[in-house]
Write a structure and sequence with these properties.
By secondary structure, this protein is α/β, with parallel strands linked by helices. It is built from twelve helices and nine strands.
Length: 360
């Protein structure tokens, strides 16, 4: 793998600014972190879920540029349209976000159904040079709801607990009716017909246990896209960008900096030393931190219900700060646990040197 660019995360990486992009009766909630960097990211979530699915990925991407995570119509408390939108209509709204925010050649990242939206947009906007598809759907060989549901449950078994909580909360907010209206749009969208039209350098990432995006389908995508790069994350499932946020962010940044070589798309690479994806030991919350995180989540829900975007931003910022503090506390704890072993190893080396010196 290429050496990772070392640039400090934007100092505002836990401050979330929430805005809206409107087109007629439709609107998109945009949660933004960071203000500086080389290129912006636009993150498009999957069916039913919210931008919170990117809560760990976004701060890691922010070491490269500002991040704009989207909540689409009908999801995460954004107003339900009168009728279900087609994938192309969702893609048009993502394009409206890019235009209204004045983003120059953003790196568009889609997850699950978000990969269809990102692909449709990139197929019609050749000026977009970098695309990332995480857990792409739907596998053309399994375009049936019953099969898709079974694959989703198989993948969900391997997801960390936090992802399951986020999914359950998001689906409750979305509602069964709207989900069931959008699902046929996702199941019938012919992504395999749009992929050959994509001129952007495309990174495809799947988790080892992602039954929704099987290895054979990802390899087929590599053959369909003119310029592609394929990675598989050991220990990960469909929401690979959560428990493996640092690794996925590293792949995204390296992909943006170094486009794929001709013919590279046929080679599915395996990410070494990625961990098991359990998230155990990743966070060390204090009682105060737990209260802050839970209170922020409740406040966010209230602000969404009231249509208070500024309140949503403040709540998201407080939650991000609590998560960051807990993560940094866990890292310090690991460093402290490793330090005595490092000192013992150093002492052993020094004793060995003394013995060798004395023998000479």
């Amino acid at each position: 793998m290429a050496a990772r660019r070392t640039r400090r995360r934007d100092e505002s990486s836990t401050r979330v600014r929430v805005t809206r992009v409107e087109r007629g009766d439709l609107w998109v909630r945009v949660s933004t972190i960071g203000t500086t960097g080389e290129r912006p990211f636009v993150l498009v979530p999957g069916i039913g879920v919210s931008s919170d699915y990117f809560e760990r990925l976004a701060p890691n991407l922010n070491s490269f540029g500002p991040v704009h995570a989207l909540d689409l119509p009908g999801f995460a408390g954004v107003t339900h349209p009168r009728t279900a939108l087609e994938i192309r209509q969702f893609a048009d709204l993502v394009g409206a976000v890019i235009d209204d925010l004045g983003l120059k050649d953003p790196i568009v990242v889609g997850h699950s159904m978000g990969t269809q939206i990102a692909t449709d947009l990139a197929a019609r906007r050749p000026e977009l040079s970098t695309l990332v598809l995480i857990g792409p759907v739907v596998n053309p060989a399994e375009r049936r709801v019953t099969v898709a549901a079974r694959r989703f449950l198989q993948a969900a078994w391997h997801e960390p607990g936090r992802v399951k909580v986020l999914a359950l909360r998001a689906y409750l907010v979305c509602g069964v009716h709207w989900f069931s209206q959008v699902l046929p749009k996702m199941m019938t969208y012919p992504i395999e017909q749009q992929l050959p039209k994509v001129r952007a350098h495309t990174l495809v990432i799947r988790g080892e246990h992602d039954a929704v995006a099987p290895r054979s389908w990802v390899e087929q995508i590599g053959r369909l896209v003119p310029s592609s790069r394929l990675w598989e994350m050991p220990g990960a499932a469909h929401s690979v960008m959560h428990a493996h946020a640092e690794e996925v962010a590293r792949l995204c940044v390296e992909h943006a900096e170094q486009p794929p070589r001709p013919g590279e798309g046929g080679d599915l690479k395996h990410y070494a030393d990625a961990g098991d994806g359990s998230e155990r030991g990743e966070f060390a919350f204090t009682p105060r931190g737990v209260v802050q995180a839970v209170a922020a989540t409740v406040r966010e829900g209230v602000a969404i219900a009231r249509g208070d975007d500024a309140g949503v931003g403040r709540a998201k910022s407080d939650h991000a700060e609590a998560m960051l503090e807990a993560h940094e506390r866990a890292e310090r704890r690991r460093d402290e646990e490793e330090r005595p072993g490092a000192e013992d190893a150093h002492d052993a080396d020094r004793d060995g040197l003394d013995d060798r010196t004395g023998a000479s």
